Amino acid sequence: MRRFLRDNGLTLFFLGALVLALIGQAFTGLADHNDRQVAQGAPEAGLGDYLTGSAFAVDVTENWQSEYLQFFLYIFITVWLIQRGSTESKTAEQAGTETDREQRAGEHAEPSSPAWARAGGLRGALFSRSLGLVMGLVFALSWLVQSVTGRVAYNAQQLAQYEDTVSWGGYLLSPDFWNRTLQNWQSEFLAVASMAALSIYLRQRGSPESKPVGAPHEATGLEG
Question: Residues 1, 92: one domain?
């Protein structure tokens, strides 16, 4: 067990942080939701009703979809685009999908390589792009859930104000949907741009996200 915890500490730490954040959001979100309910003269919701309702679901999924959009774009864009001096970038000579020899794929795979890395055809093509494709799929699914639950939450608010409800297509074109979406997207894009640029000049000793302390600023793709 100790070895398992050591070998998987990074993933386990962030999963634990996720659970704690969701618990905190559940209680603070419920309090905020009930404040609005009381202001509108509606009954307060219980924790179970809130967690299974659209208000909680849309708040969670609108953050998830923006995170996975960030990873999806970053994984694919960094195949071709570079940032000189950044640990988040390949060197100019490495731009592109690289050769099978460089990627240790196909006939250049090693004995310890995954089976699909040695396979050609569709299996090899899918495996060689599987990380980005899965990130894109999770983004699309969470975006879909956000749009569905967001419509339900929006229509509940419309009914509380004695206004007309909207269809799913109508909600996709509404300011409410795009305001929720774009305010999350812009923060993700800023975070990625900041990380790519700041890692040129700043260091974090011992972190694989940073160059070695003494590495030149123009050194690209190094890990410390």
Answer: no
Task: Tell me if 171 sits within 8 A of 83, measured CB to CB.
Answer: no
How far is it between the farthest Cα atoms of the chain?
69
Residue 187 sits in the same domain as residue 77? yes
Q: How many domains, the chain?
A: 2
pLDDT band for position 131 (50/70/90)? very high
206 and 153 in one domain? yes
Same-domain status, 67 and 33? no
Of residues 147 and 161, the one with the higher pLDDT is 147
Q: Using the predicted structure, report yes or no on whether residue 169 has a pLDDT greater than 60.
A: yes
Spatial neighbors of 86 by CB under 8 A, at least 6 apart, are: 196, 197, 199, 200, 220, 221
**Are 165 and 171 within 8 A, CB to CB?**
no
What secondary structure letter does DSSP report for 94? G
- Write the pLDDT tens digit of every residue in 31-88: 988 888 888 777 888 999 899 888 899 889 988 999 999 999 999 999 999 898 888 8
* Identity at 209, one-letter amino acid code: E
Range(s) of the domain holding residue 216? 54-97+131-224
